[in-house]
Request: fold
Amino acid sequence: MTKKSSQKIAQKNLKLRDQLWPKITDEMLWNRKNKKGFTTIPRTLPHFFRIMDDLSSGQPLSATYFVLWCRAFDEHVVTISNPRDFAFESGFSGQRAEQTWRGRMKKLKELGFILAAEGASGEFNYVLILNPYYVVKELKDQISHARYNTLIERSQNIGADDLLE
Reply:
C-alpha cells in the first residue's frame, strides 16, 4: 500500500468516525503513533491464532503466542527472565501455571512459530518469533483447506504477498 492510498483510507475513516461518533476525542482512543508501549501486528493475526489453535490438539496456543508478540520489538527477540509472569499473562494460574505455559511454548516451538535458546530462566529464556506467514506456508498440508484459503483471501485483501508461491 502506498503512502498516498493509506492517507486516503485514514481520511475516509476519520470522516466516518466523526460522523458516527462526534463526541469522541483523540484522548479517548489508542493511537500507536502517540503512545509508548505498542507493537505492530499482522492484520491477519486472528487467522494465525485459529490455525495454531487448530493444530494444538485442544490446547490453545494463541494466548501464549500473543503474549510473546506483545513483548517483542522489531527484532522479534523476547527475553524471558520470569516465566511465571508470562504464564500469568497467557491465562495460566495456580501450581501448574508455569508447567502448562512451558507445554504451550514447546508446542509453538514444535510447530515452528518460535525458536528458543536456554538461559538462566530455563529452556525458553530467549525466544525468536518467526514470520507466521512463513510458518503457515511450511505447515500448509496440516491446515484445513477452508482455514488456509480464508487466510489467503484476507492476505490478498490487505495486500500481503507473503503466501504467494
User: Anything to note?
Assistant: Strands lie at 77-79, 114-119, 122-129. Helices lie at 3-20, 45-54, 62-71, 83-89, 97-111, 132-138, 145-158.
